Amino acid sequence: MSVWTDGKTHVVVGPAGLSIHRDDEVQLILAADQLGGQLPPKKGKAGFARIRPLAVNAGVELAFTVDAERKLVRAPLGEAKGDTLKFPWDISALAPADGQRVFAAYVTGTKARALTSIVLGSPPADPKGKWEHEYENDKPKKVDWPENLLWEKAPWSRKTRWATDPDLIQVNANPHAYTVYDTASAVVGVLRRPGPKQPPEGFACVLRTPQEKGTTVAATATSRGVLVATCKPDGQAVICEFADDGKLLAHRLFTAKKIGPLALAGSRVFALVEDRKLLILDSELAPEAELELGDAFAAGPSQVQLRPNPEGTGFLLAVADKVLRGVASDAGAWSLTELDLTSVPPPGEAHAAEIAEAEIEQPNEPTGANGQPLDSRTRIITQAPRLSLNPQQPNDAWSFPAGGHFEIALNAVSVGGPAETGLQIEVHGDALDKGLIELESVAIEGTNQGQASFEIRGKKRVALLPEFRLPAGVDPVKDRKIKPKDRFLENPEDTFVTVRLSGKTLAPGSELIYVRVGFDGTDEGSLMRGRPLTVS
Questions:
Q1: How many helices (H) and strands (E) does the chain have?
Q2: Which of 126, 203, 251, 387 has the most CB within a 10 Å radius?
């Protein structure tokens, strides 16, 4: 089951398909067969039933969900006009946006080079198309985690990118912001809107919270930061509110071995605990109510969706085979019932049609003053950051006089994307081991610049530039008339960087030296250059 509610109208994706429920009417929008049936469950000892992502716009005119292969589906609701269409995006998670737009996390690339992207807009029909808003996140910043809070010394994941397993990525939306969090790394991102109906301009923060094997995490944004619930398998748990800069604003300890979805609506916070009860807290994180869910998970482990209404006076909680509805009375007492789905009408003739794929519109190719097509290449955001040696790099031998200073310059070009923060330069080889040279520093030259000193790590010399931002590359020119050596000549200026190593020559000799220019925390996408180095 998947659900959305505004308190009066409910939208459900269940065994019957996609349906809309109002007080006086229940309408089947899409039959289950049109969506390809249920999502396949996760198998294995830790398996569970999967439920579909679902997002409904504020006017209850449009729903976004996925078919059985996780391709994005857009369907008009009720009397709203428009066609039901399928789009070529492999969706991990969805959250509502205004009008024809949706907030989404999707996966692209091959299995070996997969990448999760965070976007907002009306979905393009072309899988190579550009979304209206594409959000690149900075390197996560550790929150200010107090000593001895759950751990004597907090453990941290080193991952810097969103997980590509759709089971591990969660997104949600409330009036304060969009929230993205990765349950594998406990990294949380918040995107705030400048105005009520304005899309975010970028991430307000990307925070790293403590994580170790068996830890569960959930998050949602607040007006002044983000709530993060962290549970350890031993039953120690805490809900923290962090400011966008990572400072701890408030926290409350509780006992739980597992945390499920976390939601904020009105003045209330809702948290699913151990798949058996729902905690309801006030804005100061003080307990208001605790609702036992009974046999909600009798059918077995399941993903969960928790959808409160905007006022926080009711909620829907969906698992694999049922939807629970909670309603607060004027006196603050809560009642819990199962949402009746037996009134969903059976499929009719209209539900026999396959969902049409969105058609790609062929735009008019813009031309310049000479009548030739303009270079409309876009930045790469669907691969992984990668550096390549600029083919214009001189191929001269590295030869320097003894007893002086030397410089080695590598001309690189960004050929991957999205943009990445954090550069690492490693140098090793017999020229270092046998004392021919001593490295001192490295300077990065280009649109973005940086400088760092080398430190010794075993036989390697390593320099880190954690704040250096490498812009994304652009799609390569594929004109066969252009020589390989000239293929980057028309690139944007900011895609070029020069890496300049400097140091002292100490002793005569000729040995090999290797330079790797890459990204902090991974060897993927690195540029490697090895050459004989002669000191005479």
A1: 1, 40
A2: 387
Query: Measured between alpha carbons, how far is 204 from 187 in angstroms, rounded to an integer?
Result: 14
Let me know: does 314 contact 5? Beta carbons within 8 Å: yes
Is-contact 134 225, C-beta < 8 A? no
Domain 137-292: which CATH class?
mainly beta
Alpha helices in 73-180 (DSSP H): none
- pLDDT in the model for residue 382: 63
Q: Could you give the count of Cα atoms lying within 13 Å of 238 in the half-sphere of its Cβ?
A: 17
Among 61, 64, 44, residue whose Cα is nearest residue 52: 64
Name residue, tokens 């090895």. 530
SS (H, E, C) 231-259: ECCCCEEEEEEEECCCCEEEEEEEECCCE
HEC profile for 450-493? Answer: EEEECEEECCEEEEEEEEEEECCCECCCCCCCCCHHHCCCCCCH
Amino acid at 459: K
pTM for the whole thing?
A: 0.71
The class of domain 386-535 in CATH terms is mainly beta
Q: Assess whether pLDDT exceeds 80 at residue 408.
A: yes
Tokens at 46, concatenated = 């830790």
Q: Which residue is associated with the tokens 């699913």?
A: 272
Domain ranges of the chain: 1-135+340-361, 137-292, 386-535
DSSP 178-231: EEEEETTTTEEEEEE-SSTTPPP-S-SEEEE----TT-EEEEEE-SSEEEEEEE
Extract the runs of DSSP E, i.e. beta strands, from 49-139: 55-56, 62-66, 71-76, 85-96, 102-108, 115-121, 133-135
Give the 3-state secondary structure percentages of the chain, helix then strand then coil, rounded to 5: 5, 50, 50
Residues of the chain above pLDDT 90, percent: 69
Mind listing the pLDDT tens digit for each residue in 108-117?
876 667 889 9
Neighbours of 363 (CB within 10 A): 8
Predicted confidence band of residue 374 (pLDDT cuts 50, 70, 90): very low
